[in-house]
Specification:
By secondary structure, the protein is mainly α. The chain is built from 20 helices and four strands. The chain has a two-stranded parallel ribbon with strand order 1-4. Strands 2-3 form a two-stranded antiparallel ribbon. Bound molecules: amidocarboxymethyldethia coenzyme *A. This is Citrate synthase.
């Protein structure tokens, strides 16, 4: 019996080829206009996503790889002794574009059953950052009010209350996670009513006496607060929020997006990478050695962390602001790591330009942010994304309040299959 993975191994190359051809021949073809109604209408109808598995026709409804629901009912194997379509056969169709045999469906059912027990590490999720934020939805005022029945014009006030409560709790929540993971058995001190949010956060982390770090955290968190709506974390919060999910659930979803190495994880990746560079090259490093190291990274098929951006085409002003923070402090200027970051900045854009792939050879904010945290004693770099998560709440939750205040609709762009795009551009 050909397994699901083997089947995918067979079908993926053709799709990859199809995409490559489309990109090579039609990248500049226009497939539609963007109207104001798309922008304020949750991207309704906007053909802006690639999605191959299903197409939704307004009149005839959904088709999965061209098969209508009655078609699926006819051809997809049911459970033994059953008649209805089962998840395994549907998943097989969605993933591979092919109808599975009965034996293949059974094999997949067995695989699910064999892998379905919960692993012990799941207990640790109690202390997971994103789950903890989601769990606070237990207290969502918006959700409670919505269940009771409120007018649409009142949505934003309850949403705002939730957002403020959430932001207020983020320091304690994020600090608890830090202590549980890195300083087990230490209790959180009480919040100081006379301190700002991040001053308290720093104290809760155990760095209340470390004024430099507290100041840096203030700047870092303010600068990372918002970065337009389309970045992965903000967009995720907006998308989930557009279903009228409460702010806790919406923002927890954003945190999962932030956990990816191309997004919020990048600052810890930078630190890891710069440390490896330092370990290999030592502290007295020349520009040429760094160049060589950059090429080694690129030739190894890896991205240079902290460089490039989805939108920016110049050095990130947040990077510049953090560099200026460093430039104003002798202890940072003397740090060999901060010097290495600076030297890397002096050569990396040239190397990336020569490499010729990235549209933006300049540093983004992450090129330096984690290295300063490390210098000031917050050395557990797996934690850095959590700090980013405390920060991004500011922008993402602002937008949730406004989405409710403006009565923005469910987000729903139009996706197209590869075949459909080819038809449009021919
Ligand atoms: N090093 C090497 N190659 C890079 C690169 C880098 N820093 N940045 C982009 N490229 C490559 C891409 O991988 C892509 O290659 P491919 O054609 O083989 O897939 C090509 O250049 C074109 O990419 P792009 O259009 O310039 O970038 P993008 O919009 O697809 O991605 C980003 C943007 C940030 C994910 C990418 O630049 C990257 O991976 N950078 C390194 C990770 C990083 O610093 N992320 C932090 C971003 C800020 C944040 O969210 N915190």
């Amino acid at each position: 019996v050909t397994s699901l993975k083997e089947t995918l191994q067979e079908v993926i190359p053709a799709k990859q080829e199809q995409l490559k051809k489309l990109k090579a021949e039609h990248s500049q073809s226009v497939v539609g206009d963007i109207k104001v109604e798309n922008i304020i209408g949750g991207m309704r109808g906007l053909k802006a996503m690639l999605w191959d598995a299903s197409v939704l026709d307004p009149n005839e409804g959904i088709r999965f790889h061209g098969l209508s629901i009655p078609d699926c009912q006819k051809v997809l194997p049911p459970a033994p002794g059953g008649k209805e379509i089962i998840a395994e056969s549907m998943l097989w169709l969605l993933l591979t574009g092919q109808v599975p045999s009965e034996a293949q469906t059974r094999q997949l059912s067995r695989e699910f059953a064999e892998k379905g027990d919960l692993p012990p590490f799941l207990e640790k999720l109690v202390d997971s950052w994103a789950w903890a934020v989601a769990a606070l939805n237990h207290e969502s005022l918006f959700q409670a009010a919505y269940e009771k029945g409120i007018k649409k014009s009142e949505y934003w006030t309850y949403t705002l209350d939730d957002c403020i409560n959430l932001i207020a709790r983020l320091p304690a929540l994020a600090a608890r996670i830090y202590r549980n993971v890195y300083k087990p058995g230490t209790a959180l001190p009480p919040l100081n009513k006379d301190l700002d949010l991040i001053g308290n956060y720093s104290a809760l982390l155990g760095f209340g006496d470390n004024h430099n770090l507290t100041e840096y955290l203030r700047l870092y968190i303010a600068l990372h607060g918002d970065h337009e709506g389309g970045n992965a974390s903000a967009h995720t919060a907006h998308l989930v929020g557009s279903t009228l999910s409460d702010p806790y659930l919406s923002y927890s979803a954003a945190l999962f997006a932030l956990a990816g190495p191309l997004h919020g994880l990048a600052n810890q990746e930078v630190l890891r990478w710069q440390m490896a560079m330092q370990a290999e090259l030592g502290t007295e490093v020349t520009h040429d050695q760094i160049k060589e190291y950059l090429w080694k990274t690129l030739k190894g098929g890896q991205v240079v962390p902290g460089y490039g951006h989805g939108v920016l085409r110049n050095p990130d002003p947040r990077f510049i602001a953090l560099q200026e923070f460093c430039d104003a402090r002798p202890e940072l200027l003397e740090s060999s790591m901060i010097q290495l970051v600076k030297k890397t900045y002096e050569v990396a854009p040239g190397v990336l330009k020569e490499h010729g792939k990235t549209k933006n050879p300049f540093p983004n904010v992450d090129a330096t942010s984690g290295c300063v945290l490390h210098h000031y004693g917050l050395t557990e770099f797996k934690y850095y994304t959590v700090i980013f998560g405390v920060s991004r709440a500011l922008g993402a939750l602002t937008q949730l309040v406004w989405a409710r205040a403006l009565g923005l609709p469910l987000e729903r762009p139009k996706s197209l299959s590869l075949d459909a795009i080819e038809k449009l551009v021919k």
